[in-house]
């Protein structure tokens, strides 16, 4: 069995993360039909989604404490997906 | 066959038994769950990345069609779906932490809540799809709705498989409890690995929906 | 798990997998104009003209593809022999891995015979009929995915049960196979599309679906060959 290499940072309570996720969802929803320009609203929606996914990766999938290479791989995935969606907003 | 060949693989994703009291986090060195299951998860996420790229390319080519179609979606139902999955995912994360802490009762309660809350996604998705079909909007209406139905449909298939995985996990924790196994030793340790692996899968269902929600419902076009 | 096994011919049979992929790619894929296929919205005259002007090439391609179709089944049986070293010989997963491979052979043989029919006397057939044979073959070979999924799932779940410190087939490859089996289900929407990503020639239902399967075969063969060596060494050491 592998021993922990270093001390863990304290685990953030699951429900604290949940509040952030729900908050981000609500803001994205509000902006979708709000007063901001379409491009701004769409960009913020993608940014909030990326933030939410980052939180899920780190705290629900527990990758924050994981050895390489999984965390950088998923971070690359998120960067690629976000860039793809942003391109579809800014190239139209 | 020599005995060494049959030695069980070293457990991964379990906090070292080095006397630490707080075992809610996975070992720093290990991946949560079984390392192989991450191949499934990552491959699946890459397939969805291709889907998202297809959608993005289509949106660039026909922005007006995509925006007009997006406006026909029910944003409130989309948000409901999101909140349901996020809440279910929170229970799943709590289940993994309870399992690592060796609390079988709390693990069972959290897994049941994950399954119970998660099931509501099936209800809201059924309502949403049938409303679309009743309005004469289907798979071949236009490119946006093709992607809408196919991507949410494939995602739904993942969701249904996830419900099955959750049911198996619940049955397994119950069986371990009856057999007197704890989550720290023997068969129970395998159960813990499966909870982590099943959890990673369930969180993937969750995070793919987060992208789908932003992409299909929230990305307002000009 | 079996006691002592006779591993003669196993390697030969295992090599049939990559051989099948190579032959199938050239004969069915290139000679038969199936890699990539004609798009479903291509006019019937385009398909018919190809079959008329390349009748001999298509005939040769399909005849060789049909002759080598059983190689897939032979390969599947070799992999199933290695699976027997992981789980019990009469375990249902071993049986399913075998029939999945055998059934897949049939789902290759039958559609290739349709393409061959189209190339048999194409000058006597109307355009639409050649197109229909071409469509029929594609609908069958794609929608028979579930047969191969049986093999993919059985091998995946079976190899995951390996308790060796270093499994005969790595867990990631077992999971990859299970994933391929699931991904195949996307073929279900193929009949609804004449163009785009989900059509039989599209990025998803052709490029991704075929490539993830065609990669799985040689990679699993590599591990099968390594596993055969290990099984022989384990037997020699245990003797």
Domain count of chain C: the total is 1
Mean pLDDT of chain A: 86
Q: Figure out the total of helices of chain A.
A: 3
Q: Largest chain interface and its two residue counts?
A: A-B, 54 and 65 residues
Q: What is the overall silhouette of chain C?
A: elongated
Q: What oligomerization state is this entry in?
A: heterotrimer
Q: Sheet bearing the most strands of chain A, described? A: none
Helix and strand content put the structural class of chain C at: mainly alpha
> Compute the gyration radius of chain C: what is it?
19 Å
Q: How many strand segments of chain A? A: 0
**Total number of domains of chain A:** 1
Strand content of chain C: under 5%
Outline type of chain A:
flat
Main sheet: strands, sense, barrel of chain C: none
Keywords summarizing the entry:
heterotrimer; A: mainly alpha; 0% strand; C: 239 residues; 8 helices; 72% helix; elongated
Describe this structure in words.
The complex is a heterotrimer of chains A (92), B (222) and C (239). Chain A is an all-alpha fold and 92 residues long. Chain A has one domain (16-90). Chain A has three helices and no strands. Chain A has helices at 14-32, 38-60, 70-90. The longest helix of chain A is centred in the middle third of the chain and has 23 residues, at 38-60. Mean pLDDT of chain A is 86; it is low at 1-7. Chain B has helices at 37-61, 63-70, 75-100, 104-134, 143-179, 187-218. Chain B is elongated and about 60 Å long. Chain B has a single domain (42-218), classed as Cytochrome c oxidase, subunit III, four-helix bundle (Four Helix Bundle (Hemerythrin (Met), subunit A), Up-down Bundle). The model of chain B is unreliable at 1-22 (pLDDT under 50). The longest helix of chain B is centred in the C-terminal third of the chain and has 37 residues, at 143-179. Chain C is an all-alpha fold. Chain C has one domain (10-238). In chain C, helix 1 runs antiparallel to helix 3, helix 3 (55-83) crosses helix 8 (203-238) and helix 6 (145-160) packs antiparallel against helix 7. Chain C starts with 9 loop residues before the first helix and ends with a helix. At the A-B interface, helix 1, helix 2 and helix 3 of A face helix 1, helix 3 and helix 6 of B.
